[in-house]
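Marked as duplicate of an earlier ticket. Keeping the data here for the record.
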Amino acid sequence: MLMRGGTSRGPFFLESELPSDRALRDRVLLAAMGSPDKRQIDGLGGAHPLTSKVGIVRRSATPGVDLDFLFAQLQPDNDTVDTTPNCGNMLAAVLPFALERGLLPIASGTTTARVLTLNTGMQCDVTVQTPNGRLSYLGDARIDGVPGTAAPISINFLDTAGSVCPSLLPSGHVLDRIQVEHDAQKFEVDATLIDNGMPMVLVKAADFGVTGYESVAELNANEGLRARLEALRLSVGPLMGLGEVACKSYPKMCLIAPPRAGGSIATRCFIPHLCHEAIGVLAAVTVATACVLEGSVADGNAEVPPGTSKTISVEHPTGEFSVELGLDPAGPQKVVRAALLRTARPIMRGEVLVSEELWTGNV
């Protein structure tokens, strides 16, 4: 079933309908998506990382959990199938897919399920609209980056700190001064290395000679900027406990600037080499978390409301993304809850065809 989840899109499969052998499974997914090819002309992929994603779902055997979800990030122009990071956008489509495929019973009014993301062991409660016991995709919820409105899907994350990295602040510091070698020269930059659902490197846009309000096209055309960001990304991989990250889709890089559209902070995120037209779900959670940490690179740039329950509006190139954070009253720098709203819908259902030779290993 081809589904949109949040601002991402890709095919969803039952785990039982894919090969159990991981190497064969990955070859099948690459063939299904048409990778590697920058146009993905021979598959379902949309020639962009946001539309080169796959969801794999099964009933869970973990006590207290309803569904297991494995996310796979493919790339248009290479043959990697990365199941290390999470994807909060595709996560929004997991429960609708499971209900469409009859994995769980549908309740009347709303249906809630606990989902375990196998990539990192993260759990969350997902709630969808099921009036009169029928799954509904129609509603008034709007998310930036998706046209029109749809039924709201709420996601309440239960534990996201250190999803891939060893901890929320894997370097042990809320702010690091990083020395970077690039093009036979060295430069230094302040960065917050953080993982509250997505490993990210946050830096001030001004430190890279840009405003942080540029368009996606402008930033993607700025080869010098992208090269410096990549040099920084490669430098901090070991500091974040991620090792060599040259061939990995994380950490994501994020330029930040003071808000200018009524939000809390302005962002331009790279995933990791191209600027994102919006911002990922868990990237938004991670940026929002940095906004409430005293001394982070966002401190002094973000406008944060008072109290232990805060709504952080993360501005991005096509709008904003609101994240509700709950802070520990006993330790207000500790985030204990993150909740947000997404939408999703099925686009088509059917069979994706791959060659028989691929399955038998003759290619």
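See parent ticket for discussion. Residues 176-330 form a domain with the Diaminopimelate Epimerase; Chain A, domain 1 fold (CATH 3.10.310.10).
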